[in-house]
Amino acid sequence: FTVLFIYFTCISTVQTTDCLHLREQCVNGGNGCEGVWNVVEDACNISVLGNRCKAEDSVECNRIIQVLADEYPEFKNCVCTTDNTCSITTLLGKLCSINKDNISMETKLQWGLSALSKQAHTNRSCLDVNRECVEDEVCNKQLSLYLKVCSVNKKCNVEGCQAAIRFFYGNMPFEVAQMMIFCDCIQHDESCHRAKELLHGKPCAITVVPPPSCLNVVQMCEENGLCRKKYATFRSKCWRHVTKKCYNDEACLETLLKDDVPCSATADCKAAYVSSWGTMLLTECTCQNVPPLEQPLCELFHHMLHSKSCF
């Protein structure tokens, strides 16, 4: 019995050490993991200096840890998926404690947005959508975390903001996420446009100065595993004609005129578009200063990424 006790104690210690080492690699890796980890720290209230956390909302904390594990599978063995209150403890060992008094939060996450869901449809005013989210306890809690990470008052962490966008819209009921993403404003309503920028992460994750070419955006996306997967789904669900006719053949793509590229405009297409939020695909891009020979392909990519013809 003593030998078994020592064995399991050693295994637990090794796992905790390995997970902490993975965290260090994540923070220093420069592959986007740091951005997701920053959201984990905010959601789980982790003290960097003390290596301690007090997750006041264990459900919220565990959800973002699951996002971390989904996007960076090396963390899979550091996440407990059988008990809602154990994920953060498994990740950081005995350094972390969890407030278990918030068990009803799961129910709130599932049903608390029902009122917003009933009102959800496209092209609502972004100001009204923002106000309704703020007035809803669950939506406001998630919005606050998202805005904190995407704040431009301090130096903007683009990857962290993108991770927060994925987490925010991924946790919303699809109807609510769709309502927020497709909200709009009349031209001179400044308050509405400010609300739209906040909801869409524009100041931090969408606007880049100077704007990259759309060719570069697609190339960078293809080099990132998560983005590449979402782009492939978006292209197959929304732009089947492109996928069927040319797939990755750039010479073929260049022969397509954007007016001849129909969008499927299906429910699956909308879902794929919503899922692409929080990736570099949503970065505002341009085709100015692109060499003339590359102009048709660039304009095709701009049309596919930023045209609202689907919706």
Automatic annotation (TrEMBL):
It comes from the Eukaryota. SMART domains: GDNF. Its main location: membrane. GO terms for biological process: cell surface receptor protein tyrosine kinase signaling pathway; nervous system development. GO terms for molecular function: signaling receptor activity. Residues 1-16 form the signal peptide. It is found in: Cell membrane. GO terms for cellular component: external side of plasma membrane; receptor complex. InterPro entries: GDNF/GAS1, GDNF_alpha, GDNF_rcpt. Keywords: Cell membrane, Glycoprotein, Membrane, Receptor, Signal. Residues 19-96, 126-204, 214-310 form the GDNF/GAS1 domain. The keyword Transmembrane helix does not apply. It holds the Pfam family GDNF. Belongs to the GDNFR family. This is GFRAL protein. The gene is Gfral.
